[in-house]
Amino acid sequence: MDQECPFLVRVPAMLPVPRLRSPIVLVHGLFGFDRLGVGPFTLFEYFRGIPAALTSGDNRVLLARLSPIGGVAGRAEQLRRFLDRESPHEPVHLIGHSLGGLDSRYLISRLGLAHRVLSLTTVGTPHRGSPFADWVVRRFSRLASPVLDYFSVPHGAFNDLTLASCRRFNDEVPEAPGVRYFSVAGRVCVSWRTPTWWLPSPIVERAEGPNDGVVSMASARWGESFEEWDAYHVELVNWPRPFAPRSRSAERVDGYVKLVRRLSDEGF
């Protein structure tokens, strides 16, 4: 049986949800989507259970749908068009998971939308890149890129997540005055129950220390406030952990409620 990680933090379930004056926009990460379903029936959400939890507090929650593996600049432009369509006359709060956090930063600083974004909370975002992205690019780009190019599939995300690319990104995409920046990072103990992370987590661990399976805590830290969650990278958006002895869904949902509560306490 696995031992519990010493940094595991319990949070109470079913926290009351505060109402913000402006919409909340959830921005998915690599290989992401807004929802999968048939017609009006949703089979699976990227931010699993999060929209329903936040809307229960009478918040307006918008789900962006961007290119699954497209580069940051292209995805940010898609996000700009989404906001123009769904929230053209009011500012928003952005919550971006993984690559979605970089898209949101680019949108704010490079596409001139700082005046329309009140806050950005990044969740498991590799602001300084991920060593695992470098590992993947070195081994597979020569094989995969020609195929994706042949079918005209945008695939710049992989290069945009490398360490060198993110160093350039941070030089070219500074924080925008007037926008509040917050962040969340995951930290886990990899065990026999989590074979998905056996390869990437040690690669990141050796290079940068504690991580969520693909993104180190050091890379995910950004902005004026930083939180640590006991969660793998996809658990940060409330995906279930295979072979887990118990569900942690209530903890993840309450984590997002706490993010919204912080914004409410800040006067939003």
> Biggest β-sheet: count, sense, barrel?
6 strands, parallel
Strand content: 15-25%
CATH class: Alpha Beta
Q: Output the radius of gyration.
A: 18 Å
Shape descriptor: globular
Number of strands: 8
* Average predicted local confidence, pLDDT: 87
Structural class: alpha/beta
CATH architecture: 3-Layer(aba) Sandwich
Structurally, the number of domains stands at 1
In oligomeric terms, what are we looking at? single chain
- CATH fold name: Rossmann fold
Please explain how this structure is put together.
The protein has 268 residues and is an alpha/beta fold. The chain has a single domain, classed as 3-Layer(aba) Sandwich (Rossmann fold). Helix content is 36%, strand content 15%. The protein has nine helices and eight strands. It has helices at 50-55, 72-86, 99-110, 131-150, 157-160, 163-172, 200-208, 217-220, 249-265, and strands at 24-27, 35-38, 41-45, 61-63, 92-97, 117-123, 180-186, 225-229. The strands form two sheets. A six-stranded parallel sheet has the order 4-1-5-6-7-8, sandwiched between helices. It has a two-stranded antiparallel ribbon with strand order 2-3. Helix 2 (72-86) crosses helix 3 (99-110). The radius of gyration is 18 Å and the shape is globular. The protein starts with 23 loop residues before the first strand and ends with a helix. 40% of the residues are buried. Residues 1-13 have low confidence and may be disordered.
